Amino acid sequence: MERDLDPGVARRALGRLLEAVLANRGEANAVFDILAVLQSEDQGEIQEAVRACSRLFGALLERGELFVGQLPSEKMVMAGSQRATRKYKVWMRHRYHSCCNRLGELLAHPSFQVQELALGTLMKFVQLEGAHPLEKPKWEGNYLFPRQLFKSVVEGVLSPEEDHSLLLSQFREYLEHDDIRYHTMQAATDIVVQVANGHPEQVPLTFWNNAFTLLSAVSLPHQESEALNFYVRHAGAEEGWGLGWGKVHVASSPPTLQEHKKAFQLMWLSFLKYKLPLSLCKKVLVIMHDSILPHLAQPSLMIDFLTHAYNMGGAVSLLALNGLFILIHEHNLEYPDFYRKLYGLLDPSIFHVKYRARFFHLADLFLSSSHLPAYLVAAFAKRLSRLALTAPPEALLMVLPFICNLLRRHPACHILVHRPQGPELGTDPYDPEEEDPAMSRALESSLWELQTLQQHYHPEVSRAAGVISQALSTSEVSIAPLLGLTAFEVFERDLKKKGPESVPLEFIPAQGLLGRWDDLCAQHFTLS
User: Looking at the domain assignment, is residue 397 inside a domain?
Assistant: First the structure.
C-alpha cells in the first residue's frame, strides 16, 4: 500500500481490503497490507489502520474464525496435512496475535489520540474474547477471562518510559466494572513484582508514578452488592448466574468482597514493600487513611510501612499520623513510643509545613483522652508554649486555644497557670532538649511564655493569650475553623476592620534630621 496517503484515500483503501478479507478467505493475505499500515509513521494512517483492525478481528472473533485452544506453531501447521479450515484459523489467529502486539506498542505512541484508540481497541478485544473465548474451558459452564491479553494492556499503561497520566485517566473508566477492577489488581501486582524484583533501585520514577496513578484509582465497594457490573460476559452463561470476577472457576460461585479485599491488599503490599521515592511516599500517605486502609482485609499489615514512615521525620511523619491513628483506635494496635515520637515532632517548622492543619487536628484527637498522665499533657502544653514565642500570628491564633483546651481537659495541669511567681527563662526547670516528655520536668514549670505573648504586637494574639490570666471556661473552643488560617487571611481580616471615625492627634512638625529642636543636625538640616 502506498505511503503518505490522504486520510480519506487511506480509509477507502483499507475499507476495500477489509471487505475483501471478510468476504473471501482466498483474500486472507490482504491482512498483511492492513497490518503494514499499523507500522506507518503517519498518525492519520495509523488511526485508520487501527479502526480497520478493530472491525476485522472483531468480526472474526464473533464469527468464530480464529483458532480456539493452545495455539500451535504456524510453520508446523502450514506444512502439515490438516484441513484448510484449520490452517486458516491458525494462520489468522497468528495475525490477530501480531495485531494485539502492535496495538500494545502503540500505547506508547507520541500521539495521545493514537494511544486512546489503541487502548479502546484492545479493550474491545478483551470483551469479545470473553464472550468468544480463544481458550477451551476446563469444564462446561466455566467463565474464562482473557487474562494474557488484559495483562498486556495493563503492562502497556504502566510504562517505565512514558508518563501515562492521561491514558490512565481513560483506563480509569473501565475500573467501574467489577471484573476489570479485580483483574487490574491481579495484573498490577504481577507487573510491579516483575519490574521491581532484582534491582528496585534502578526502576525509573516514571514507572512508580504510573503504578501509583493506577493503584490509587482502584476503589472497592464498602459492602457486598447483588447487582454486579461486568465488562466481560460469556455468551453461553445462563441468565442470572453470577459470573464471578474472572477467575477460572464455576460461574455460579463468585468470590466474596473479602476475597476482593485480599487482592486489593496484596496489590498495595507488593507496591509498598519496595523503597519508594520520597515524593511518592507522601502521596501514598495522603490517601492511606481513607482510600487504602478501609478496603484492606487486614489493615494491621500496614504497620511496618506506617512506622517506617513515622520514623523518617519531617512532613512524612506528619502524614503517617493519620494511618497510625486508625490502626491504634480502630484496630487496637499497640504502639509503645507513640506519644514520645509525637512529642519529638514538635519543632519550629511545625508552624510552616504544608500539612500543619492535618497535624494539629490529629494531635488534638490524640490528646483528647482524659486517661493521659498529667506529666505528658503538661509536656505538650509547655513545648507548644515555648515554640509559640517564635511562631507567626496565624499559627498563634490556633495554638493558643489548643493549649487552653489541653488545660480544660486536664485540671491537674492548671498548676502551670496558677503557680505564683513561676520560673522565668533563666530559672525554668523545663528542659526543651529532652526527647522524653516524662523527663522534661514540664509539670514543675509554668506557662510564662503565654504571659509574654500578652504583649504581642498583633492585638488578636495578645487577646487570645490574655485568656490564660482569666478563669478558664469548662467548654472547649473549637479549633477546626483556625486550623487552615493563613497569613493572607489574617491580613485581609485586619484590612476589613473599621477603625474609629475620628482619632485625636497631637501633631508636632519634625525639625532637623533626628526630629529634635535643639540637636546639632537641626542647625544644618531642616525639613521643609
Answer: yes
Domain carrying residue 195 = 138-233+243-276
- pLDDT band at residue 247, thresholds of 50, 70 and 90? very low
Facing residues of 180 across strands? Answer: none
**pLDDT, greater one: 30 or 335:** 30
Cα angle 447, 449, 453; round to 5: 130
Q: Do 256 and 343 share a domain, yes or no?
A: no
Measured over the CA atoms of residue 63, residue 68, residue 71 and residue 74, the dihedral's sign is negative
CB 118 within 8 A of CB 106: yes
> Are 112 and 149 in the same domain?
no
Q: What is the number of alpha carbons within 13 Å of residue 6 lying toward its C-beta? A: 3
User: Does residue 296 lie within any of the structural domains?
Assistant: no
State the residue for C-alpha cell 511564655.
449
Are 68 and 128 within one domain?
Answer: yes
pTM of the model: 0.79
Determine contact, residues 234/143, Cβ cutoff 8 Å.
yes
Structural domains in the chain (count): 3
357 and 492 belong to one structural domain: yes
Between CA 384 and CA 447 the distance in angstroms is 10
Check whether residue 121 and residue 178 sit in a common domain: no
Residue 304 forms part of a structural domain: no
Q: Which three cell numbers stand for residue 295?
A: 478496603
Query: Is the pLDDT confidence value at 527 over 60?
Result: no
Reported for 481-490, long-range contacts at CB under 8 A and 24+ positions apart, including other chains, are 482/397, 482/398, 482/401, 483/356, 483/357, 483/360, 483/361, 483/398, 484/357, 485/394, 485/397, 485/398, 486/394, 487/392, 487/393, 487/394, 489/394, 490/393, 490/394, 490/397, 490/458, 490/460
Rounded CA-CA distance 23/483 in Å is 70
Whole-angstrom Cα distance, residue 47 to residue 62? 22
Would residue 48 count as lying in a domain? yes
Residues 61 and 155 in one domain: no
**pLDDT tens across 418-473, in order?**
765 555 656 789 999 999 999 999 998 988 889 889 999 888 899 999 888 887 77
Euclidean distance between CA atoms 11 and 51, whole angstroms: 9
- Report the range out of 61-75, 117-131, 314-328, 355-369 with the highest average pLDDT: 117-131
Q: Are residues 152 and 30 in the same domain?
A: no
Q: Which whole-number Å values give the CA distances from 168 to 75, 88, 106, 155, in the listed order?
A: 38, 37, 14, 12
